[in-house]
Structures are given as structure tokens and as C-alpha cells.
Design a protein that fits this description.
This protein is of the alpha/beta class. It is built from nine helices and seven strands. It is globular.
């Protein structure tokens, strides 16, 4: 039985760990050929070995560098062909009151969480449009936002702002590229336990915060699989400009 994304060529940024790594694995398991991108090449190569070299390609890339983004797509095309599915997952957060945060850190967060999302999506769309209507109609771009784009999480104002901007950018691009058949959607997770968050979540601060959630729990890395696969699949043909919230009711706490 064919997988839900059989025959697709997917690019996942921020794939060296956490959700990006999980996204790449589940897309490959469901039939896609996967290009995994991040700064840490060694972690990417381990992931490629796990998936299989015939179905995965590792590309070291700083997605805040436009030239590096273009080179990343060139490498993907040389290996597999035109990328028709993009998971814009690279991002960063912080924990600092705005009173003590310097402008360089604020700009760094916005550059990675917003500007790079636009740059990667734009490069994907340009190539899809160039490839023709039949190819561009398969276009699926999924930008990873956050429930922080809808609610206020204390002491991460730059992150909150960047994720709200990511969600609105998603709607804007969906409107601009609708004529080409390219679907652009957002996926907004709540707190997910990954190798990057596990120490905080298991500590006193994380446990105290967790008690505010209606279900008193956090999600695991597999919690987003089904929503992701749907947005990347042919089943989402008529879904564009949406932001799918998967947070286990955390934002209602």
C-alpha cells in the first residue's frame, strides 16, 4: 500500500534534531524522498543513514543566508528533482524579559523565524512555478509556527512576535500563490518534549508551567505526525492559508 506522500520530494529545514528530525522520518516512512537541512552536518548524515541513502540527502545550510538557500535547492534538484513539499521548521526561541534583551538578539530571532521562512518558501515557489502548472499544483509548503503566535507566553516577546508574523506570512503567501496551485499552510504546536526542551520541562519551572495546562501534560514528537502528513498530502488539495493548531488544549490554560 502506497504511503500518504508517496512520490513527493520533501525538504525539511532544522532537521538535525527534535521535530525536524521526526518530520523527515515520518515523511520518508510514508513514501517521500527527503532532503534534510541544518547547520550540523554530522547529525544530518546520521539521519540519512537511518532513512537510507537512496531516499534521503543531507545538506548543510544556514537558512538565513540566501545564497545557501539557493544552493540547498540546487543540491536537492540534482539528487531527486524539483522539491514539491517544504517543511519550514528551522527556528529558535529565548527566555528573556524585553527590558534586558538587546536588539541584536531580537533581530537574530526574527531573521531565523520569519525572514528565512519567507526566503525558503520563495525559492521553493519560484522553482515550482518555473516547472509548470502540473508540478506547481503539487506544491505543499508547511511553515512551522507555534501556539505562541496566538497567545502570550511570558518573557519570550520576540518569539511570540516572530511566530505571529510567521502565521500571517503563511496566509499572505497562500493568497499570492493560489493561482499557481501552491498550497501554503501553517502548523502551530504547543509544548512538545524534545531533546531541546526535555531538561526544562522536567525541571521545577517546566513542571510548574505544566500545571497550567488543562490536561497537565506535554506532547511527544509524534504528536504532529498526522497533521503534517495531511497538509503535505493530496488530501489537502483544497486546504491553503490555514494555521493548524495542535497543542492538546495548552493554549486554553
Amino acid at each position: 500500500m502506497a504511503g500518504r506522500v508517496e512520490g513527493r520530494i520533501a525538504l525539511v529545514t532544522g532537521a538535525s534534531s527534535g521535530l525536524g528530525r521526526q518530520f523527515a522520518k515520518v515523511l520518508a516512512a510514508e513514501g517521500a524522498k527527503v532532503v534534510v537541512a541544518a547547520r550540523r552536518k554530522d547529525r544530518l548524515e546520521d539521519l540519512v543513514k537511518e532513512i537510507g541513502g537512496d531516499r534521503a540527502l543531507a545538506v548543510q545550510c544556514d537558512v538565513t543566508d540566501e545564497a545557501a538557500v539557493i544552493a540547498m535547492f540546487d543540491a536537492a534538484e540534482a539528487k531527486f528533482g524539483v522539491v514539491d513539499t517544504v517543511i519550514n521548521n528551522a527556528g529558535m526561541t529565548h527566555e528573556k524579559n524585553a527590558l534586558t534583551q538587546d536588539i541584536a538578539e531580537f533581530r537574530k530571532i526574527m531573521d531565523l523565524n520569519v525572514t528565512s521562512v519567507w526566503c525558503v518558501a520563495r525559492e521553493a515557489a519560484r522553482r515550482l512555478v518555473k516547472a509548470g502548472a502540473e508540478v506547481s499544483a503539487r506544491g505543499r509548503i508547511v511553515n512551522i509556527a507555534s501556539m505562541a503566535g496566538r497567545i502570550i507566553i511570558p518573557n519570550v516577546s520576540a518569539y511570540n512576535a516572530s511566530k505571529a508574523a510567521c502565521a500571517h506570512l503563511t496566509r499572505s503567501l497562500a493568497r499570492e500563490w493560489a493561482r499557481y496551485g501552491i498550497n501554503v499552510n501553517g502548523l502551530s504546536p504547543g509544548y512538545v518534549e524534545t531533546e531541546l526542551t526535555s531538561d526544562w520541562l522536567s525541571g521545577e519551572g517546566g513542571q510548574k508551567y505544566l500545571q497550567k495546562f488543562p490536561r497537565r501534560r506535554v506532547m511527544d514528537e509524534q504528536s504532529l505526525d498526522e497533521a503534517l502528513l495531511f497538509l503535505c498530502s493530496d488530501a489537502a488539495k483544497f486546504v491553503t492559508g490555514t494555521d493548524v493548531l495542535v497543542d492538546d488544549a495548552q493554549s486554553m490554560g
